[in-house]
Every structure is written in C-alpha cells, then in structure tokens.
Amino acid sequence: MRYFLKSMEHSIWPSSAVHLIPVSTAKNGVSSKSRKRIMPDPVTEPPVTDPVYEALLYCNIPSVAERSMEGHAPHHFKLVSVHVFIRHGDRYPLYVIPKTKRPEIDCTLVANRKPYHPKLEAFVSHMSKGSGASFESPLNSLPLYPNHPLCEMGELTQTGVVQHLQNGQLLRDIYLKKHKLLPNDWSADQLYLETTGKSRTLQSGLALLYGFLPDFDWKKIYFRHQPSALFCSGTCYCPVRNQYLEKEQRRQYLLRLKNSQLEKTYGEMAKIVDVPTKQLRAANPIDSMLCHLCHNVSFPCTRNGCVDMEHFKVIKTHQIEDERERREKKLYLGYSLLGAHPILNQTIGRMQRATEGRKEELFALYSAHDVTLSPVLSALGLSEARFPRFAARLIFELWQDREKPNEHSVRILYNGVDVTFHTSFCQDHHKRSPKPMCPLENLVRFVKRDMFVALGGSSTNYYDACHREGF
C-alpha cells in the first residue's frame, strides 16, 4: 500500500520524530497584537494527537515558502547579531528493520527531481570546489554533499539539502537583504560555524550557508568540529546530568511496560519479519518506518504479511503519551537544564561581546541533531514545542534600541514563530514592563542564575550543579 502525501502548509509548531509533545493552550493566551498567534487553529487543524498527521509534519516536506517572523522588531531597533541552531535535514534511517529490504532512496542530487530548488545545481557545483577548504579535523574527511545512488545509513537526502537551502534563502532575505547584518565584504571572523562530525550535519550546515551566502568564498569559511551532540565543548563531564538521563530512561521503560497494545504490536511485527520481539524493538523500527512515510515508499512486506499503518499509529500514539508523562515528571527538564547550559552560556557570551561593539561572530550557525535542540527547547521553558522536525531551526536574535543604545533585547524564534514570550525567562515580561522586546539581561540572568535555581538545591554555578551530592 502506498500513502500519497499532499503538499501542505506547515503547522505553526513543528512535529516530533521519536518523541511528540502535544500542544496545549498557553497559560495566559497571547494578548499583544505585536505577538504572532502560535496555537493551531482548532477549526482548520487536524487533532494534534493524530499520529500520522504529526509524522507528516515531522517529515517537513519542502513545499510553499513558510510564514516566518524572523527579523520583526519595532522600527527603532537595530539587529546586532543572530545565532542559529539547526537540526540536520531529512536523512536515511539509522536502523534497519531486520530481514526486510531497505527502502530504496537515491541520495544523489538531481536538479530536475522533486523536491526541487533553483539553487540545487549551483550548490553541487560550488561544493565540488570546496575540497581544499578549511574544516577542523575530522570534518575534512567528510563528503560535502550526499552522492550515493542508494543512500547509506544516516545519509542526508536530496530532501534534506533542499530543506536547508530554503532555510538559508529565507534567512538571507531577512537578515542580509532587509537588515544588512553582514557587510558585502564580510570577513571570516564575522561568521561562527560549528557542526558535529556527521556528514548529515556538515552537509546541512553547508546547504543553509549556501542559501544564506550564495557562491561564498571558500577562503572565508571555517567549520569547527564539535564532538558532543550537546555542544558542551570542554565542559561535558556532568554526573548529575547523566543521573537525570538515567532516571528519565527508566521512566520511559516503565511506561512502555504498561502499554499492552504496544507490546502486542511489536509482537505482530516481529512475527511478520520472523525475529524475536526483543530484537525487533532494539532495531527501532519507527526510524525506518518514518523514512517510508516521508518518502512515500510502501512499508515492508514478507511472506508472513506486511508491516502497516496501524502498527505505525500504535507506536506513534505511545510516543505522544510518553511526551505527556515526560513533561509531568520533570526528569527530562533536569537533564535539559544541565545539558543545554554550556551552549546557552556560550551564546550569551557572544551576545555580550556584540553589545560592546565587537564586530566578529555576528552570525553563528550550529548544525546539530534533534538531541541537541530538544534539551535547549526544554531548558528555555518551551514546553509546547514539539520535538524538532527535520531541518528545524531555533534562532536567537540580538537587537539594540537606537533611541537608547545601551539597551539590548533578545528574540527567540522556533521554525519562524516568535516564542520569546513563552520562554520561562520572559513569559511575564509584558505584565511587568511596557518595553516591546525582552531585555537581554533576562536571558543572561536565566543562564547565569535561574537555570540552577530551577534545579533545586543550593548550586549557583554549572560545576557545582553537575557535581552536587545526594541527588
């Protein structure tokens, strides 16, 4: 059976991959006219717990240009710097369903094949000239674009490249053409580029960069390598963070044990592919099934029957339930506050240098994973944000008030939606202040102090919070 995916306008909140966070009504609503409504329209949107609809949103199939609120500010504010966190684009599965044929997806880039982008051919041409460019080891050994007739495990697809070419072009139109963030003769030190050591993250970063700065000068590009998916650089050792994660994983395991329908579904699927149930579950079949769905390829069949949409729905529905409980138990929040602190601390440091008039690192790009963005979203208090879809983007904008040059403000945007006033550090700002933007000091205070307060205990810094006894 084949499932036809019509092009559809993306929901305002992106969807989840392995985890889904259902949308609930904002506590205080959104009252200000200057703030974009972020809740789905109940009349036109399907139920948010529909697992197939959620999965299609997660696929993020490139279609019409999406609405975005990046770069929106009162006229007397000047854009100072932009910090972009992305999840890599659409990829081939990381796991194979045992004893089934791998989905046949072509990972070469073909200009006249869907999904199409007018810059795709030029992107390939430009990447072919970059082999001698500056990439921190081991990035210099990775291919700069996908190029296998049958995708390799985890490889970026043409869809993934197009998703980020679109992201880059959208950011170019706003930040360069409208706000002139970088001068025409921009220099290498005005960009900060960092990626994990996977080809899919490096290639996604390059695709976005090419959409943002077409035909850029390779001599001005330097991608740094980040060994950790949490982008924690030299501060990755954090025993308490790992304890939170272990407790969270235990919670997930216990919830799964309670779900008899899930167990029955895994049992049925295991019989179809003729392996023990335990082996099938370990193969994480949902990862492969999402690829079939996103690329409109039939689910696999054997002589014992076919894996089908009903199996898929059961697994996805369980994930929705898992997200509900995850929010209630708060263990993942503890993990997120410690997991996201290093990269948030680095970001505010870069912002503070920009407020002093420093002109380097005006545009920062982190090309990362779902397990990078998800803790940052959770730590910021964006509990309504669904798990990052393919090519998700989370953006921090720094603005200066031209009328009061010493005052700086921040905006946080998730896939083009302004979520600043849904963050824990600025959700009450409009009640207490007439200022239209969230002060930078709110974010600084949150990262330097309030993240540790939220963890409980008496810790006032990252090291102590990571090593406190008796957790």
UniProtKB/TrEMBL annotation:
SUPFAM superfamilies: Phosphoglycerate mutase-like. GO terms for molecular function: phosphatase activity. GO terms for cellular component: Golgi membrane. It is a single-pass type II membrane protein. It catalyses: 3-O-[beta-D-GlcA-(1->3)-beta-D-Gal-(1->3)-beta-D-Gal-(1->4)-beta-D-2-O-P-Xyl]-L-seryl-[protein] + H2O = 3-O-(beta-D-GlcA-(1->3)-beta-D-Gal-(1->3)-beta-D-Gal-(1->4)-beta-D-Xyl)-L-seryl-[protein] + phosphate. Keywords: Glycoprotein, Golgi apparatus, Hydrolase, Membrane, Signal-anchor, Transmembrane, Transmembrane helix. It is found in: Golgi apparatus membrane. Gene3D superfamilies: Phosphoglycerate mutase-like. Its main location: Golgi. It comes from the Eukaryota. CDD domains: HP_HAP_like. InterPro entries: His_Pase_clade-2, His_PPase_superfam, Histidine_acid_phosphatase. Interacts with B3GAT3; the interaction increases the 2-phosphoxylose phosphatase activity of PXYLP1 during completion of linkage region formation in a B3GAT3-mediated manner. Responsible for the 2-O-dephosphorylation of xylose in the glycosaminoglycan-protein linkage region of proteoglycans thereby regulating the amount of mature glycosaminoglycan (GAG) chains. Sulfated glycosaminoglycans (GAGs), including heparan sulfate and chondroitin sulfate, are synthesized on the so-called common GAG-protein linkage region (GlcUAbeta1-3Galbeta1-3Galbeta1-4Xylbeta1-O-Ser) of core proteins, which is formed by the stepwise addition of monosaccharide residues by the respective specific glycosyltransferases. Belongs to the histidine acid phosphatase family. This is 2-phosphoxylose phosphatase 1. It comes from Macaca fascicularis. The lineage of its organism: Eukaryota, Metazoa, Chordata, Craniata, Vertebrata.
